[in-house]
Write a structure and sequence with these properties.
The complex is a heterodimer of chains A (456) and B (168). Chain A is of the alpha/beta class. Helices cover 35% and strands 17% of the residues of chain A. In chain B, 35% of the residues lie in helices and 19% in strands. Classes of the chains: A alpha/beta (456), B alpha/beta (168).
Amino acid sequence: MHHLGTGTLNNLILLIIYFGMEPAEVNLMSVESNRKPKMHAVHKILAAAAGKEFVQPGEIITAKVDIAGINDVYLIVVKSFREMLGEKVWNPSKTYIFLDHNTPASDLRVAEAHKAFREFAGEQGCHLVEINEGIGHNLLPERGLVRPGEIIVITDSHTPIHGAFGAFATGLGATDIAAVLIDGATWFKVPEVVNVRLTGKPRRNITAKDMALQILGKLGPDFGIYKVIEFSGPVVGTLSMDERTVLTVMGTEMGAKSTYIKPDKITLDHITQRTSDSFTVHTSDTDFEYAEEYEFDVTDLRPQVALPHSVDNVRNVEDVEGIPIHQVFVGSCTGGKRHDIEIVANALKGKKIAPTTRLVVTMATQNIIRESIENGNYQILLDAGACITSPGCGGCSGLLGGIIAGGERCVSTANRNFPGRMGGSVDAEVYLASPATAAATALTGKLTSPDGDKRA
Amino acid sequence: MKITGKVVVYNHDNISTDQIYPSPYGYIQDPGEMAEHVLEGADRTLKDRFKNVGKIFVTGSNFGCGSSREFAVIVLKESGVRAVIAKSAGRIWYRNAVNLGLPVLFCDTLSDSIREGNEIEIDFEKGIIREIATGSIHRCKVPGVFIMEIYKEGGIKQLMRKKAQKRV
């Protein structure tokens, strides 16, 4: 599957011409460029998957997929698969079922759904991620299964997280995925690309979550709708893969169809340490024109919080400090990763959370739990008064493990704060913030900036 | 393809899938039971308005933002909704609507001017909405041939079944 796409070949040839070019060749090149549409790397990924040399925004294509995933909320996929007269999935080695949302099963209906999924996986011979393993979105990259140039579709809106690895990844509905299981392909409208550049030098205590919230506060929850959002600029280059995935997963909240971060040494090191499989890194044409471009200087950025009930209701934490908080939730594909756990454990070391609040920690994967036991963070969190759950999507998706009651307020490192998000009560309030802000808040029981007394 | 009917208007933006169909109901299989919770997180009166007032739902921008749950389309269909006219919609919700055969049209002007209970005629191929009482016309984006084909089959399942039967 990982062949060198024609787009990349052309690009390589153009690059070679560029470096050794004579004036006459410059003219040749510009004639050439008039004929061919300029493509973004994402367009080249889509073109390769559609077996085409070029694609243009607005065009509808049928693209082969590299990974199709289903999570345990969507047994409807199996039902639709049968209704479409599906018998065998097109490729069991590329099909993943993630029992990650409602785990371990919270009631009888869930248990029946899990049972049906296990039977389907057994019958089809596809991958099944069991209830102890963790969140699919974090497990795939942890195992080196997300690579540049791939097309990933999962029945989950936060699938654009994988754009951090240079893949084209997007969420699909259950019936859509059922069709993918039969055909190994799906239709896409080729999207336009929006560029969000991050420049400057962030202050201490500023994380990718603060940057994502800043972007949401300024541009709103729908500026990326139907589009790919690329995150670029010098700041992105300094971020770890964990932090980059916070930008890309929050791309979902910006409305994005998919996201993209150009693979660099950090990306390639992450992947090659985990897999020896080959992959293709597509590069954007040098004079590609973005549909829109935005630049954010993060130098003076303060810790950010999205107040209820929308992701773009964003303020500086220091301007709204003091609101009593009943629960702090550290978890989800967005805020339950290694980096998040480390920040929270460092802040809580040797301390206790406020008696007026509670702290629910849901690490994203089993391996993160393992590591936190080895490096002592697990003990720190327990001693501080945290309730540590099994890994999964539970609290964030409002299914189990951290549901809040009407009238309660929760500061969360997750990704959404729509009415009813954490369990169904529309009177409950979710405040989205960074792990640093979450930890500072857990210590005081009130919305608190991690900058504390050291505020400049 | 034309649809005529009375409208239910809820002119708000960014109505999320959590509001259209709250997550705790995700494991309900019975359609009637599902429909009891339609748009519960936004306005509990909508359930009865779909029964008593109209079957065409008119709403604001970014409708159906949030999760990929297909229930946020199914629950509308189960509540009798025959078409949705929004200023814009969340991408996955829109795609789910197409796949499940719930016709959606994007219109910037209708939700700000139309009154609940009024009758409209929607012409999907032409992208035109006509208010029956006044005759005033709203122009919308045309869904495109590819999407219209899915609508005409009644959804992607029907399309896939046809394909499968051809293979046999």
